[in-house]
Amino acid sequence: MIALYTAATPNGHKISVALEEMALPYTLHALELSKNEQKEPWFLALNPNGRIPAIVDRAADNFAVFESGAILIYLAEKSGQLMPLEAKGRSLVLQWLMFQMGGVGPMMGQANVFFRYFPEKIQAAIDRYQGESKRLLRVLDARLAEHEYLAGDYSIADIANWAWVRTHNWSGVTVDDLPHLRRWMAAIYARPAAQRGILLPPSALDGKADAEKTGRFAAEARKILETGQSRAPDA
User: Cβ distance 122 to 113 under 8 Å?
Assistant: First the structure.
């Protein structure tokens, strides 16, 4: 049994979607980031960085894993799913996973900070991070023009990127001119496991939540920024 410690953010939803896709049994523990539950000593023992998500594999002597990309790789290797075993196929998956972790996530995360949460509107920062986010989405669109999924078959690379790309409206970035990306997004949205995963916990970032939920999420994010943390509530 996997214990998942998470919150309703793109990085959190990477793991809940993956667990649903792999049909691995797990228990969900939703942390309240605005109350700094991720900074409590018991959680820091699982993730010294104090960010969600983290997992504990109860079947492997309570082995803890933090960092969403590392968790995805661990779960793929544990289950034998969503990542090839042969070297080239595995490398392709890891390349596009790293693309999300090193580019899409950080750039969209900063776009969220300056577009949605930061009390002062700094247009140069907004333009910088929205522009770089759009550039990265164009890279994905170009890849998907020639491939159904990012690394051949559906994989943890698709899950990781989709968890962020689906929130593009929250970052203030449009995808109307990216038809291949939109085709891919719709294909993953149609997967029952993906639909279940983004409800654990329910998302407020994709434009489908009501105004009260999105407003509450934004308010909590601003509160986190005001307490001196350097990042919005994604980990």
Answer: no
CB atoms within 10 A of CB 34: 17
Among 173, 157, 185, residue whose Cα is nearest residue 114? 173
Tokens 């960010």 correspond to 51
Assigned token pair, 38: 């991720």
The larger pLDDT score, comparing residue 215 to residue 32, is at 32
Whether cis (ω within 30° of 0) applies to the bond prior to 202 is no
Is pLDDT of 64 > 70? yes
Beta bridge partners of residue 4, listed in sequence order: 28, 55
Q: Nearest-CA neighbor of 165 among 117, 210, 207, 123? A: 207
Write out pLDDT tens, residues 114-127. Answer: 999 999 999 999 99
Q: In whole angstroms, give the CA distance from residue 194 to residue 196.
A: 5
54 three-state secondary structure: strand
Amino acid at 200: L
Percent pLDDT > 90 in the chain is 84
Give the global pTM. Answer: 0.89
Tokens 């980031």 — which residue? 33
Whole-number percent of the chain with pLDDT over 70: 86
Q: 2 with 57: CB under 8 angstroms? A: yes
Residue 194 CA to residue 233 CA, distance in Å, equals 21
- CA distance between the termini of the chain: 23
Q: What is the mean pLDDT of residues 207-212?
A: 57
